[in-house]
Specification:
mainly alpha, MetI-like fold
């Protein structure tokens, strides 16, 4: 009986999980059939599926997704390393916090997309400008969460270094990182989400490959089916990346 109840609850959960996407799909289909939406402004779901099959067969879909994911991972890793080093330094040093505070407070509200013109002037339209924008997008969420995580560690643990004269590296590995880990993982998730948004924006400005390039290509060719497919890919890949990171985060925090 319990097994049947569990199965029923699971099926209900799946149903409610997909209910809203199904509703949107039905409304979209009805609007397309009724002629309320013109085909040149909004294609039918079938047309988007047809386009998906078309670019899957010619290899463009996976090629564009892979290009964007590789850029995101490269920029994200750079941002993570920089944010961890600076965040730990600022979290442990009041002098460094004061020294960097006003600079970061001014830079933090500037959207990464606003840096695109300067990035192109500085680095050209190659990979470096895109990576620069991704690094900016991922950096601040990770940095701020690392600092907050350290600030929220019980002060008595921070005194251990002075009392027992523990080496700085050992202290960071044994006390600081484990203590701040929940905050760090939150920052990593937000940072990765920002990195994915930034890569799409950067690719829309100057790229010959990537999901953002797909959107620009669709706009230039007046192909809304390609634009919608690109938007769906952005959402789906972004969710997959966040889900993977969420599972990793839970396991790491549980183990810690």
């Amino acid at each position: 009986m319990d097994e049947k109840k569990k199965l029923k609850n699971k099926l209900l959960s799946v149903f409610f999980y997909i209910l809203m996407p199904l509703f949107i799909l039905i409304v979209w289909k009805i609007a397309a059939l009724s002629g309320y939406i013109k085909p040149y402004t909004m294609p039918t779901p079938e047309k988007v599926i047809e386009t998906t099959g078309e670019i899957l067969r010619n290899g463009q879909l996976m090629s564009n997704i892979l290009a964007s994911v590789c850029r995101v991972l490269e920029g994200f890793v750079i941002a993570l390393i920089l944010a961890l080093i600076l965040g730990i330094g600022i979290g442990l040093s009041k002098k460094l916090e004061i020294f960097t505070e006003i600079t970061f407070q001014i830079l933090k509200p500037i959207p990464p997309i606003a840096w695109i013109p300067l990035a192109i002037i500085w680095f050209g339209i190659g990979e470096s400008s895109k990576i620069f924008i991704i690094v900016l997008g991922a950096f601040f969420p990770i940095l701020l969460n690392v600092i907050d995580g350290i600030k929220n560690i019980d002060p008595k643990y921070l005194e251990l270094e002075k009392v027992y004269e523990v080496k700085k590296i050992k202290f960071i590995k044994g006390v600081i990182l484990p203590g701040a880990l929940p905050y760090i993982m939150t920052g990593i998730r937000v940072g990765l989400g920002n990195a994915w948004v930034c890569v799409v924006a950067a690719e829309m400005i100057a790229a010959t490959k990537g999901v953002g390039y797909m959107l620009t290509d669709g706009r230039n060719l007046s192909r809304p089916d390609l634009v919608i497919l690109g938007m769906l890919i952005i959402g789906i890949v972004g969710k997959i990346m966040d889900d993977i990171l969420k599972k990793i985060s839970k396991k790491i925090i549980k183990w810690n």
